[in-house]
Amino acid sequence: MLSVVRVHLPSEIPIVGCEITPYVLLRRPDGAVSTDDVPETAPTDGQFMRYRWYRIQSDRKVPICSVHPMEQATIQCLGCLKSKIPVTKSYHCSAKCFSDAWQHHKVLHERASSALNENGAEEEELFGRFGCGGSGVLSTAGSGSLSNFGQSPSVSNGPVPLYPSGTDKNSGETWFEVGRSRTYTPSADDIGHALKFECVAVDSEKRSPVGPPTSIMTSRVIPAPTPTPRRLIQVNGDVLGHLDLDSQTSSLGTFTVLSYNILADAYATSDAYSYCPTWALSWAYRRQNLLREIIGYHADIICLQEVQLNHFEDFFAPELDKHGYQALYKKRTTEVYSGNPMAIDGCATFFRRDKFSHVKKYEVEFNKAAQSLTDAIIPAAQKRVALSRLIKDNIALIAVLEAKFGNHGAENPGKRQLLCVANTHINVHQDLKDVKLWEVHTLLKGLEKIAVSADIPMLVCGDFNSTPGSSPHGLLAVGKVDQLHPDLAIDPLGILRPPSKLNHQLPLYIFFFCKNGRCWL
Fold it and tell me: How many angstroms separate the CA atoms of 293 and 315, rounded?
């Protein structure tokens, strides 16, 4: 008989717009235990799984804080209502909460005012398209008394439920059936209500349950918090015109670039980020925020780091394709990595098809460079130790693109307008300063070969895990490393000698992510 062994949720707190996929462990008629679904279209031994989602609710209404979604709101910003900002953004749990959030909150007012002046359609982009703009008032069961302040006229009780309602005889709560699949995405109508997931094996012929249903409850659905606005750095002037020092390459005009380490789901653990609630670390929540932010920048070129292979294939590539981007990907090597092959991360580069076309792709594997280096300079007896220090599975993805805009050879008819874009993640422990600098230097020397052979400008993006003042930053930004730099004191393998070799001749614009979260050029 088909039966349910265990059911649990990836997070107890459901978020508006974030798909919930329960973990359902099934025991099949042959005794095998598996998480694979048994749909009605492919029954096993005349049985299949049926799923239902229910929303539990009552008529009690409670507003919740937009900053601290687990807290009940006590004050409301009337300026948000006047600016037509979604009502969920107007609630705060205390005067201190509102005061502390004011620098962030006033940006919403400024953006809303600007968007309304230019065109009203921008509002969806500013506040998200994943159902975060619904009612900020919660309808909850047994949640306590109401805060005594006025309700916005725009707040409604939501649409009629998808399926007929019913009443739980044990608790007396009213419930509405809202879904009939294994997954469910909470909407604004679910805010403040608990959800119940129910699954049961069903006889294909009789259409009746084989045994008792298994169910699990969530806590109350909360709206997605408003992301903190980024501090952007403006790059003035014609970027590639500046790079063309010898006036041999026509200017490509103006284009935009985004570089972003998105934090792979495999690394987003509660142990590493104990200050974050589990729902904020869940991939279902983060991926929607990431996609909304990435798309919102309208960048012509996007370089992402820590992109898991399965997330690239199943999410980023198809989603960004809908917005006109072509994708390239290079996963990290696996000499050190021992986890799920599909969960390994790498670098992904996207470019707008209406702005660029793909010419050539290069892949750099620092493990191979380490093997060549040890073969050349390390005594045989020390190779194992040297490789254990050098091999970190890091890679770089290099793409040569041809521009479809700009002067198009006005100064030199027939000359192709090319651009080389490098994307990398130098993921090396801070104690291994020699390895980090060696990987950066190795990448730059490879780019120099491409620049000489193709005579094209270079753009380097990535997460170098380095701060201003470090040797990798100096090499990238200045073109050389001070021979008295303290980082050079750590070189047990002699891979940085002589220090005078640590230079490059590339005129670069470099976008990279520093430890403190700021982007330095």
Answer: 15
Judge contact between 506 and 444, C-beta under 8 A: yes
pLDDT tier, 187 (very low <50, low <70, confident <90, very high otherwise): very high
pLDDT tens for 404-456 read: 986 555 556 667 889 999 999 999 999 999 999 999 999 999 999 888 877 78
Residue 51: per-residue pLDDT: 97
Q: Is the dihedral of CA 306, 311, 315, 320 positive or negative?
A: positive
Q: What angle do CA 23, 280, 333 make, to 5 degrees?
A: 75
Please tell me the distance from the alpha carbon of residue 472 to that of residue 507, in angstroms, as a whole number: 16
What is the SS3 assignment for 170?
coil
Q: Where do the H-state alpha helices sit in 201-314? A: 239-243, 278-281, 283-296, 309-311
Task: Report the sign of the C-alpha dihedral through residues 485, 489, 495, 499, in that order.
Answer: positive
CA 436, CA 429: separation in Å to the nearest integer? 8
| Distances from the Cα of 90 to the Cα of 49, 69, 366, angstroms | 42, 12, 50
Q: How far apart are the C-alpha atoms of 441 and 429, rounded to whole Å?
A: 17
d(CA 469, CA 492): 22
Q: Which residues contact 39 (CB under 8 A, 6 or more apart)?
A: 48, 49
Q: Of 439, 305, 421, which is closest to residue 362 (Cα–Cα)?
A: 421
**Angle, vertex CA 70, rays to CA 65 and CA 72, nearest 5:** 50
Taking the C-alpha atoms of residue 15 and residue 132, their distance in angstroms, rounded to an integer, is 9
For the chain, what's the residue count? 521
Q: Which of 349, 394, 348, 350 is nearest to 368 (CA)?
A: 394
Residue of 27, 22, 30 whose CA lies nearest to 4: 27
Strand ranges in 211-324 using DSSP code E only, listed in sequence order: 214-220, 257-261, 301-308
What tens digit of pLDDT does each residue of 231-259 get?
666 655 444 433 343 433 344 578 999 99
* Strand duo 75-76 + 61-63: pairing: unpaired
Residue pair 11/283 in contact (Cβ under 8 Å)? The answer is: no
Torsion of CA 113, 115, 121, 126, to 10 degrees: -90
- pLDDT reading at 516 higher than 70: no
Measured distance CA(21)–CA(284) in Å, rounded: 9
Are residues 277 and 13 in contact, defined by beta-carbon separation less than 8 angstroms?
yes
Tell me the chain's radius of gyration from C-alpha atoms. 27
Q: Which of 392, 315, 393 is nearest to 348 (CA)?
A: 315
CB 214 within 8 A of CB 199: yes
